[in-house]
Amino acid sequence: MLKFKSIEEAVVAGVKSIATNCIKSGTVKKLIYTGTVVASSPLKDDGSGYKDFIDETCCTPLHLPLTALHKEYADSKTLAEKELLMRYGKDENESGRLKVVSLDIGLVGGDALLSYMSASVAVLISQVKDNEALHQSLKFVEDICGKIPLVHVDDVCEAHIFCAENPSINGKILLANSYVSSVEITNYYRQNYPEFKLKEKYLEGPNREIKWASTKLIDEGFVFKHDLRMILDDSIKYARRIGDLSM
């Protein structure tokens, strides 16, 4: 059994193994890696704050003062994507046999087929559940990305298919169609689901003027079918369906 010194080393090794075996197969023409926007932070490398925008040119600095769990997650995802794109993502790379797409996905909401609560939706409705631990994970995404990039699970599925079927798509792509603050999410729940009586503390948060500047997927012709309202409403619907919300 292979032994690794860290989570980061294990994740990078896993990505390298997948890409290497795709090339060895001789039949795989495109590798679509499901990444995360946590690897695409608009934070400046010198620690002086945020850029004015977030897009595919952004990459999360590795020296951020995060909790151990969040740091392992952010660093491992960032390093894995760097390895994948630098080693294998150069115009069909050295072998000439493999295209690489890294889909950096936002926080996923919406109604899922699962019979249990998905981790991402649990984070997204943390204010409704008054779950402070999960809300810290929501704030982690907000602090890394400036605001919270959101995407509906159905659009995530469609985007994977779209990237697989479109031969011109390669490289890094951010996948989200809403970019909002945690306070904006709280306000939506308070206005549309007053029965949950969200606490005032969730109305406290940063108001950062950072723009979502990623248009790469849309420029290729992809159409998002679910807006912010649908993402949040379907998340509540899902939680109610599986009995995670009593009202």
The Rg value, from CA coordinates, equals 19 Å
Major sheet details: 3 strands, parallel
* CATH topology description: Rossmann fold
**Class from helix and strand fractions:** alpha/beta
**CATH homologous superfamily grouping:** NAD(P)-binding Rossmann-like Domain
Order of helix and strand elements from N to C terminus: HEEHEEHHHEHEEHEHH
- How many structurally independent domains? 1
Contiguous helical run count: 9
Q: How many DSSP E strands?
A: 8
GO molecular function: oxidoreductase activity, acting on the CH-OH group of donors, NAD or NADP as acceptor
InterPro entries: NAD(P)-bd_dom_sf (IPR036291), NAD(P)_dehydrat-like (IPR050425)
Protein name: Anthocyanidin reductase
Keywords: NADP, Oxidoreductase
Task: Summarize the structure in words.
This protein is of the alpha/beta class. The chain has one domain (29-241): Rossmann fold (3-Layer(aba) Sandwich). The chain is built from nine helices and eight strands. It has helices at residues 7-25, 68-88, 119-124, 126-129, 132-145, 153-165, 182-192, 216-219, 228-241, and strands at residues 30-36, 53-54, 99-105, 107-109, 148-152, 171-175, 178-180, 211-212. The strands form three sheets. A three-stranded parallel β-sheet has the order 1-3-6, with helices on both faces. Strands 4-5-7 form a three-stranded mixed β-sheet. The chain has a two-stranded parallel ribbon with strand order 2-8. The longest helix is centred in the first third of the chain and has 21 residues, at 68-88. The termini are far apart. The relative contact order is 0.16.
